[in-house]
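From the methods appendix. Each design record in this collection lists the tokenized structure first, followed by the designed amino acid sequence. Records were kept in a plain field format so they could be parsed without special tools. The example shown here is representative of the layout used throughout.

RECORD:
FOLD TOKENS (218 positions):
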């Protein structure tokens, strides 16, 4: 299937997850076609071990369609289910070519359940996220979506993309903060571009203000 695409060449092939990790260091490929189930370490284990930011562009190529949402949360560029037709494979190659030509990194996003299936939400469109028992509620554009994940886990995944804790149960996209105010009694609150007002705890106030200051400089 790759043969017609002369701009690409096979740098290496791996039989299991451990070999993948070794090959990534040894070969430094631009693209990785990755199976989900492999001996030892699976595809998701490989990404977790190496971390998403150190991965090349990833296309999952697998017989299992039920893992698609998790794949996109792992920042995969595409997800191909076997048997793959040549036309579907060619579509994936075109997407890879555009991304490699642009030189832009993969835009981080969340896949959240919706009434009809699921939707992909770019993290730059998220206003804030609040803890809700065993879930988190993701707020974007006045709408919210429940995601079965702890706030700590989600912060570990997207915190580096400009999110800061306002309080123990709230995570805010700092670039969406319009103003930070402190009342006469010392209570601090962040006003978001959406108009929502989020309380900032005394414990988090200094770190929150520092992050906001750095964002405004940028």
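DESIGN:
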């Amino acid at each position: 299937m790759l043969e017609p695409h002369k701009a690409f060449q096979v740098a290496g092939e791996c039989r299991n997850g451990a070999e993948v990790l070794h090959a990534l260091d040894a070969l430094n490929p631009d693209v990785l076609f990755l199976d989900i189930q492999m001996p030892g370490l699976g595809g998701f284990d490989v990404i977790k071990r190496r971390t998403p930011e150190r991965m090349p562009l990833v296309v999952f190529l697998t017989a299992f369609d039920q893992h698609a949402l998790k794949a996109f949360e792992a920042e995969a560029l595409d997800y191909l289910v076997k048997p793959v037709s040549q036309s579907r494979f060619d579509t994936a190659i075109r997407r890879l070519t555009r991304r490699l030509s642009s030189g832009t990194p993969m835009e981080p996003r969340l896949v959240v359940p919706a009434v009809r299936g699921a939707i992909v939400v770019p993290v730059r469109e998220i206003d804030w996220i609040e803890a809700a028992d065993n879930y988190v509620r993701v707020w974007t554009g006045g709408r919210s979506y429940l995601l079965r994940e702890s706030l700590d886990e989600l912060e570990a995944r997207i915190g580096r993309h400009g999110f800061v804790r306002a309080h123990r149960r709230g995570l805010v996209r700092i670039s969406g903060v319009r103003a930070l105010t402190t009342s006469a009694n010392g209570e601090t609150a962040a006003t978001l571009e959406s108009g929502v007002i989020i309380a900032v705890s005394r414990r988090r106030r200094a770190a929150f203000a520092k992050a906001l200051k750095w964002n405004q400089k940028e």
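APPENDIX NOTE: The mean pLDDT is 89.
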